[in-house]
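Quick illustration, no need to memorize.
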Amino acid sequence: MLDGRYQSVLEARNRDVFTTELEHFTKSMGFDNFSAMTVVDHSLGRSDFISVDNCPSGFRAAMDSPQLHRRDPVMQHCKRQSLPIVWDQRTYLAKDAGDLWDVQASFGYRTGIALALHLPEGRHFVLGMERSAALPSNSGELTRLVADMQLFAVHAMDSALRVLLPPEQQLERPHLTPRELEALRWTMDGKTAWEVGAILSISERTAVLHLANAMRKLGCNNKHQAVLKAMRLGLIR
């Protein structure tokens, strides 16, 4: 079974629920604010940006500028890399952008963690969590924070692409038959192929066939990967 925090964001059915799940996770990690953004690149250098956040009043007006984004070392890191960045005032001073840190620090954005996931077909997901208090000085504790955020981002990404992007920009989801979806749902609950067959009144061999077909359509190597991907795509809950 998935950790409840990851399960919940996977099952987000709309933008409001998705935003609420992000805020809950952010608070559970000890951060004050979050920002999540999907980016879809088009031809001729044009990109669409769709974001959700819980930033304080006045923050967007102070910071939402293409010129500032081009100077922001955290944004530039996420644009080019998939490795998380742990940042504070020193990150900005090293890039001669201390004035940007001064502005955002006045809103409580003094330190944080950010990462980007870069997908095929020009799709990207960026997640950041920020706070005013210093991050843990213990390297083990900080490593756990980064690892938890990375795992959460993988699950949040699929929901973001599903609930934030307009239908015409979403990738086509594979069509699974009702029996294939039922087999995946019961597998998600920890049932074996024999148990799935008994529940659905079919043979174990037929249950295995339904699972194999679902795996093939979803492009997965095993049934557990298939369950997780079906959840990410919103095919099962």
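Strands lie at 33-41, 47-53, 85-87, 111-119, 123-131.
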